[in-house]
Amino acid sequence: MEFSFAHPQYLFLLFLVPLLFFIHFLALGNKKKKALKFANFEAIAKIQGIDFFSKNLVVLGLNILIIMAMVLAVSGFTFHTTAESSDFSFVLAIDSSQSMEADDFVPDRITAAKQVASEFIDSAPIDVNMGVISFSSSSRIEIDMTQKRDELKRAVNQIKTSGLGGTDLYEAVLSSTNLMINEGSKSIVLLSDGQINVGTMDDAIDYAKRNDVVVHSIGMGTKEGGNTEFALLKIDEDSLKSIAYSTGGTYSSAESIENLSAAYAGIFKLTKRKVSIGLYEYLIFLAILLLVLEFFLANTRYVNLP
Q: In terms of C-beta density within 10 A (0-12 exposed, 13-18 middle, 19 or more buried), how is residue 20 classed?
């Protein structure tokens, strides 16, 4: 367990802490001398509940914590630990065509897909960047690359099946790849029932290979197929196998929600390595909370007499 600073030149501001100590006790001494000039000081103290040291030290402690939090934040305080991680960034590409309304999963394919995709996000190492797209006859970016798990899951849960027919796998690969343009090792987790009827598979494979993208495909649906309001739809595995094997990825068939969970879980190739977590956002949030608390106490319980 280690820590570092992105901008250590700002750490000199921590010298404000001993300076605050000095100013505080100097001012406290002056206040006490002035207060003792009043003959009825002890009576006032009892009525107002004045206790110079214990009460003033609480406010002093809060001010010190605020200064330390803000200085560490601007200094780019970063925590390092060893944990399981992945060398890849991922885009979850989820089929949202009408065929995903088939009822061979309970209650339907799209609902089961969103549930398991959210579990995959929860299981991801903390330093892995992920994005989410949905696709049918065209693709839609649900959320850009991020490590914020709550936002990723919210984006997944908002996916709805498209009112338009068609599944354009090339468009899905194009959008997913472009989303990872600034990432290192890139991987697409492509979930579909394989009913590819827009665009060409060769174009999708070529684009993924030219951009060094590994595609892991998951075929969702039973051999018997599932009913929609339009037709009985069965899974077409050939296209999904083709793009996975051509790009160095894996193909998994999911005929149940248990199979689907296992398919997602098998994608991560985890290794032990140093993981860095920037704490500056949390420190700024802590400083703001402490400022609010200090303001409340200074104007209520620890208010000074004039």
A: middle
Task: Please tell me whether residue 50 adopts helix, strand or coil conformation.
Answer: coil
Residues 171 and 62 in one domain: no
Q: Is residue 60 part of a domain?
A: yes
Question: Tokens standing for 95?
Answer: 């089929």
Same domain? For 285 and 221 the reply is no
DSSP-derived secondary structure letter, 168: B
- Transcribe 220-233 into DSSP letters: ES-SS-EE-SS-EE
CATH number at residue 107: 3.40.50.410
Q: What is the DSSP string of 62-92?
A: HHHHHHHHHHHHHTTEEEEEEEEE-SEEEEE
Structural domain of 263: 87-269
**With contact defined as beta carbons under 8 Å apart, do 169 and 246 qualify?**
no
Q: Do both 12 and 96 map to the same domain?
A: no
User: How many independent structural domains does the chain possess?
Assistant: 2
| Cα gap 68→51, rounded to integer Å | 26
The answer to whether residue 304 sits within a structural domain is no
Residues 236 and 102 in one domain: yes
Q: What is the pLDDT along the chain (306 residues), one digit of tens a residue?
A: 677 888 889 999 998 888 888 887 777 666 666 655 554 555 555 555 555 444 567 778 888 999 999 999 999 898 877 655 577 899 999 999 888 888 888 889 999 999 999 999 998 877 889 999 999 888 999 999 999 999 999 999 999 988 666 678 889 999 999 999 989 889 999 998 866 665 678 889 999 999 989 999 999 887 665 555 545 456 768 888 999 999 989 999 988 999 999 988 888 764 455 567 788 888 999 999 998 888 887 777 665 544
What pTM, to 2 d.p., does this model score? 0.62
